[in-house]
Amino acid sequence: MFYRDDRLALFIDGANVYAACRALGFDIDFRLLRQEFMRRGKLLRAFYYTALLETEEYSPIRPLVDWLQYNGFTMVTKPAREFVDREGRRKVKGNMDIELTIDAMEMAPHVDHIVLFSGDGDFRRLVESLQRKGVRVSVVSTMRTSPPMISDDLRRQADTFIELDELRSLLGRSDRKTPPESEDTAETAPFGLPRAI
Fold it and tell me: Structure pTM?
């Protein structure tokens, strides 16, 4: 439930949202996302969290990061780490949970409602702590994938669960391109760039 006078903040777990959108088969238009939540309340901040591969000359997510920085989003980034798993596959790790948690707790005294775009069950305790501070928390993720992309504990803790797939008509891009098949780019591939930059 949103109230027009609510002071809102968005916290977007970039890798988690990318994975959910990819599984659902659509990309988010971040200009539309920002406009939608400005319509739902007084949007104070929209945070986007992602790890960046600094070892590559060109990071595929860099255009998205640059666009978001210039268009009203607060970017929180850190270098991703590359490693090789037991099967010899190249993996990228760049968990942003701590950064998101600290920022949400610092923002809590200034907002009425936080919208968390993530299905990561590690955020259940964060949601509980925010609620004890009097902040309502909506969680945006999806149950329409197999397996669901949202932790059951997180969904139960949230004041409101918003099915990401139901936002497709409001936030989805119409010119979606086929996502990359490479498993090692799943967390770093760009998505959701508006046509006019």
Answer: 0.83
Q: How far apart are CA 197 and CA 13, in angstroms?
A: 22
C-alpha gyration radius of the chain: 16
> What is the distance between the alpha carbons of residues 103 and 123, in angstroms, rounded to a whole number?
13
pLDDT score of 56: 59
* Structure confidence at residue 55 as a pLDDT band (50, 70, 90): low
Pair 188, 80: CB distance under 8 Å? yes
Q: Give the residue extent of every domain in the chain.
A: 7-173
5, 19, 41, 164, 194 from 128: Cα distances, Å: 23, 24, 22, 21, 34
CATH topology of domain 7-173: Rossmann fold (3.40.50)
